Amino acid sequence: MFWVSVLSVCCSVMKWLVSVALSVVLSVAHSGQEVLADEGSLDSIRISAAALQHDSMELISLVLDATVERFGPYEIKVTENTVQARASEELANNRLLDAIWFATSIEREQKLLPIRIPMDMGLLGYRVCMIKKGSQGKFAGIYDFDSWQQSGLRIGQGWDWPDTKILSANNLRVVTSQGYSLLFNMLRNNRFDCFSRSVIEINNELGRADRGDLTVESSLLFVYPMPTFVFVNKANERLAERIRFGFEQVQQNRTYYDYMQRKRLGAIENLNLGARHVIRLENPYLTEDTRKLLEDHTLWYDVGS
Predict the structure, then answer these.
(1) Residue 297 DSSP code
(2) Contact status, residue 139 vs residue 279, Cβ threshold 8 Å
(3) Extents of the domains making up the chain
(4) Which of 65, 118, 121, 169 could be bridged to 227 by S-S, CB 3.0 to 4.6 A?
(5) Is there a contact between 149 and 155 (Cβ–Cβ < 8 Å)?
C-alpha cells in the first residue's frame, strides 16, 4: 500500500508539472513575442545571382536582419541567373529559389505567395524613356496620352516583363526582346524610340561607361500602379511570415524610410519628376487584394497629377 501511495503522489506531481509547463507554453504563444526558431536551426534562403547584385538586396538584408531574434539565424545561398518567367516557374515548383522580388501580376499571385508590402513605394511603375542622344526632338509636342498615340513612337521592353502586358493593354506600340542586354542595341539601331525604364533603374543603367550614347528623355513620365512584392513558394508559410514580420519591423523603426530616402527618393531628384508631363496608364493585371492595398496612400509615392 505504501508504494501505491507513493506512486499516486508521484503521478499527481507529474500531472501538475505538465499542467504548469503547458500553461507557460500557451502563455508565450499568445503573447505575440514567441520565438519561432528551433535551437541550432539555420534558415537557408536561395536567391538568384541577379538579385544579389541588385541594390534592393540591401533592403532584403535589413528586413531579414530584423527577424533574427524571433526566427533565428539565416543564410543567403546564391543560385544561377534566370529570366523572370523561369524564376517564377522554379519558385512555384520549389526548385532553385526560395524568394524572388519583382512586379506583381494576377498570374504571379496565383502561382506564388506574395508578401503584400511594397518594396519601393510603387516607384517601379514610374517610367521615363531612355533614348539615343540627339533624339529628344522626337518627343516635342507630346504632353498627354493622345499626343503620344498620335506620335506613333514605339516602346522597347522585355518579352516576359509585366510592363509589356500593361503597355499593350493601353494600346501602346511595344517592341520586345528575349534578352535584357539586347534592348540597348535595339534602341541604338532604331528598333524602337523609347526604352521605358523605372526611375529607380535608369540612373544606374546610364552610369555604365559603354552607354554614353544614351540618355534620359527630359519631358515625359509614364505612371501606372505596379507594386514590387517579395514572393515565396505557396507552401513556405514560415518564410512568408518571417519576411512579413521583418518588413513590419523596419517600417516601425523607420529603417525602411531611411533606406527609401537614401537609395530611392534622393537618387531620382535629377530626373525632375514634378516638372514632367504625366501620362497615367491603367494596370488591369492586379488582383483585388492588391488593388485594395493601393488605397493606403502612406505606402506609395505620388508625384501628383
Answers:
(1) G
(2) no
(3) 43-120+228-275, 123-223
(4) 118
(5) no
Separation CA 263–CA 257 (nearest Å): 10
Q: How far is CA 80 from CA 49, 50, 83, 88, in A?
A: 6, 8, 10, 14
Over the chain (305 residues), what is each successive 10-residue block's mean pLDDT? 37 38 31 51 89 84 97 94 88 95 94 96 96 97 97 96 95 96 97 97 91 97 96 97 98 94 90 96 97 93 76
Residues in the chain: 305
CB atoms within 10 A of CB 249: 18
CATH code of the region 123-223: 3.40.190.10
Strand partners, 157: 176
Can you tell me the distance from the alpha carbon of 66 to that of 45, in angstroms, rounded to the nearest whole number? 15
Supply the CATH classification number for the domain 43-120+228-275.
3.40.190.10
For the sheet containing 228-232, what is the strand order? 99-103, 228-232, 113-115
Alpha carbon 302 to its chain's center: 18
C-alpha cell at 247: 518588413
The x, y and z cell numbers of residue 290, run together, are: 492588391
- Residues 231, 115 contacting (CB under 8 angstroms): yes
User: What is the distance between the alpha carbons of residues 193 and 139, in angstroms, rounded to a whole number?
Assistant: 9
CA 272, 134, 137, 279 torsion-angle sign: negative
Q: What is d(CA 36, CA 290) in angstroms, rounded to the nearest whole number?
A: 28
Cell for 38?
Answer: 528551433
pTM comes to: 0.82
Give the whole-angstrom CA distance, residue 82 versus residue 97: 10
